[in-house]
Amino acid sequence: MTTYTATGLNAGTTYEFKVEARNSFDFSSPSEVLSLKASWFPEPPTTVTTNNVDANVEISWSDPVSNGEPITAYRIYIQESGSATYIEETVDCIGNDVTLVSSRACSIAIATLKAAPYSLAQGESISAKVISINVYGESALSDAGSGAVIQNIPDAPINLVNDL
């Protein structure tokens, strides 16, 4: 046998391996040590939500399982109006920003969501998906999360009159 599959390893733990050859006479000297860290690409966040906050929409998500290596970035996708297509948000949600990575949240101006490429209209639900990234690669897309809707924020009152 020239392969070995180690099982029961803990994510994030470094393991050391040595190999010896064997024939009918005896074992060889061991090989040099091979160190391997049990790590792989992360899982997607399990919960994604969108919430209206003033003239913005806040997208937040759960801390995903990192599978042994820290999360270094996220990709945030917003559903395009009248479509099943999700488009990556790169204007207000910069996925490798350290604040975004640590808080697992970003805020997008409603004006951005009303404009192309999203083109969301008054009353439409804002649906988002998130991908987690570590040094090994990207997770699958999370399930869609929603909660916020496009709403108009009124302009400040003008021409105020004192009736006293």
> Which parts are unreliable, with pLDDT below 50 for 5 consecutive residues or more?
none
The percentage helix is: under 10%
How many beta-strand segments?
A: 10
- Structural class, from helix and strand content? mainly beta
Q: Give the percentage of residues in beta strands.
A: 25-35%
User: How much is the radius of gyration in Å?
Assistant: 25 Å
The general outline is: elongated
Largest sheet: 5 strands, antiparallel
Global mean pLDDT: 91
Order of helices and strands: EEEEEEHEHEEE
What's the oligomerization state?
A: single chain
Number of helices: 2
Distance between the termini: 96 Å
Structure commentary:
The longest helix has 6 residues, at 98-103. Strands 5, 6, 8, 9 and 10 form a five-stranded antiparallel beta sheet that branches. This protein has a three-stranded antiparallel beta sheet with strand order 3-4-7. It is elongated and about 105 Å long. 7% of the residues lie in helices and 32% in strands. Strand 5 (73-79) and strand 6 (86-88) form a beta hairpin. The chain has 164 residues and is mainly β. The model has no long low-confidence stretch (mean pLDDT 91). The protein has two helices and ten strands, in the order E-E-E-E-E-E-H-E-H-E-E-E. The relative contact order is 0.21.
